[in-house]
Amino acid sequence: MLQQSQVLNVLPRRILANLWASHETRVTLSHFIATTPNHAYRSPTSPSFLCSELPIRYMHILRLLSTLPPDALQSPIIRHVSHRYLHDMCTLLHPSLHNTSRRAFTNLMRRLRMRQAASLIRLRYALSGSATALMDNINIIGLGIQFLTDQHLSSLDRVQVVRPMEIAMQAVEDVRQVCASCFGNEAPKIITTQKGGDGEGGSGSGRTLLPSEFLYTPSALHRVLFESILVAVRTHMASLLGRQQPQKKEWTALFRPQALKEDIRLDVFGGPTSIGFRLDSPTPLAPGDLQADVPRDPVGIPITHTVLSTTEARHLRDDDVVAHAEWHAWSGWRAAKAMAAHWGGNLDAMSVQGLGTTVYLALDRDPTLLERYPAQNAFRRRLHHSPQTQLDAFLDAISQPATSTPLERPIQKDHSVSLSAAVAAAVAHA
Questions:
Q1: Using only C-alpha atoms, what is the Rg of the chain?
Q2: Contact 60/24 with Cβ under 8 angstroms?
Q3: Which has fewest Cβ within 10 Å: 148, 164, 175, 355?
């Protein structure tokens, strides 16, 4: 167990100031498949690139957090996440890491990826409903970190030629299984068809791609489709279950279209410049389906809430692992929308009462598009604050102990008083 105060004592302020003012090195999908030997080129999956780039991106997340008010920075969750990122920076910047074995470095990347996922979940709980734009920008940087570490760790999920129709069918099957398990009913049928296919598919992998192929990561495409399909199927099944309950019939029901009996349709389009997906559901979405929220299961029950009980205000644990954190960190519509836009795509939904829901997903074929990153004005709290002043104010805020720590002082109730009051009330009503 490590004291959080020890982290700030180890890292020199000049190094933190340098990382605070450094710019990220944005990559493209083509960088992950470059095969031409070039001595000046560093692969985004190489240890040297990761050791220099990840600390900068960690610090950029802290720069985004520094835009919060001082009292918010002193909350246990924000202080814990901030010190966790500082600790991981210290690990990556240690000189001994350059001489470690590839196996040891891979194990370190795996631990850092799990910590990153746990930190994003904590931030979703801390910023839920109050700082949606801030959390979206944090997710953008977090996605870049996720892609870099995934490409280093995975041998099967690298950037490659993918067939959207195959991944779409797998995502449909996975959504139906998950919803059937959670609701206890058979999931609705989803008709999946492939349309279009005219024109050239482009290139970038050493050969001409077919119109039904493009360069991407299979897991990212699957996750975007999974989350976007899940939103529609979950709402559709909830509406069907609600209609099965005995209700008093109203005269307005005579004019309602019997659309809930229709199937959900997913169409896959292969165009010359992009790959498109269109999902049509006869059920309109609920008001909160597209809003930022904490991770939840399809029924709506919050999950990974144990992350709150393991968040300590003054200590960092080496065994701080949240079950399935890497999956839950990217659950929900907002995360899927950020993932789709990371390489130039777009995910959007249109829902109208009485007409249903249509979800659009478009992914660009061009593998040379730079990854998405927050604009520079997102890192500034006030225009007249210099970067050094902003850094000093942030470090001072997270180093000060919080005035009230709910995680360390649980509310205690005097049950004897409550019982006496209940007995007195019962006697009075007798």
A1: 25
A2: yes
A3: 355
Q: Which residue shows structure tokens 């220099």?
A: 52
Smallest CA-to-CA distance from 319 within 129, 164, 114, 141 is with 114
Tell me the angle at which helices 13-21 and 47-65 cross, rounded to the nearest 10 degrees. 90
Q: Please check whether residue 61 is in contact with residue 405, taking contact to mean a CB–CB distance below 8 angstroms.
A: no
Reported as type and span, the H/E element at residue 190 is strand 190-196
**CA-based angle 61:63:67, to the nearest 5?**
115
Q: Residue 418: which residues within 8 A CB-CB, separation 6 or more?
A: none
**If you average pLDDT over residues 376-401, what whole number do you get?**
79
Which DSSP string do the residues of 144-155 spell out, in sequence order? Answer: HHHHHHHHHH-S
Both tokens of residue 302?
């919050």
Give per-residue pLDDT as tens, 345-375. 999 999 999 889 999 999 999 999 999 999 8
Q: How many CB atoms lie under 10 A from the CB of residue 37?
A: 6
Start-to-end Cα distance in the chain: 57
Quote the tokens at residue 175. Answer: 């959504």
Write down the pLDDT at residue 36: 52
What is the DSSP pairing of strand 190-196 with strand 214-216?
unpaired
Query: Encoding tokens for residue 173?
Result: 């099957």
CA distance 214 to 220: 13
**Number of other CB atoms surrounding residue 338 within 10 Å:** 22
Q: What is the pLDDT of residues 229-266, one digit of tens each?
A: 999 999 999 888 775 554 444 444 444 444 445 789 99
CA distance 142 to 310: 21
Pairing of strands 2-3, 315-316: antiparallel
Instruction: Check pLDDT > 50 for residue 39.
Output: no
- For residue 74, give the 3-state DSSP assignment: coil
- 422: Cα separation from own chain's centroid: 46
91-136 pLDDT per residue, tens: 999 988 888 999 999 999 999 999 999 999 999 999 987 788 999 9
Q: What is the DSSP letter of 161?
A: E
Reported as half-sphere exposure (CB side, CA atoms, 13 A), residue 414 has a value of 4
CA distance 49 to 51: 6
**Identity of the residue numbered 60:** H
For residue 82, what are the contacts with CB-CB under 8 A and spacing of at least 6?
Answer: 62, 65, 73, 394, 398
Task: Tabulate helix, strand, coil % of the chain (nearest 5).
Answer: 50, 10, 35
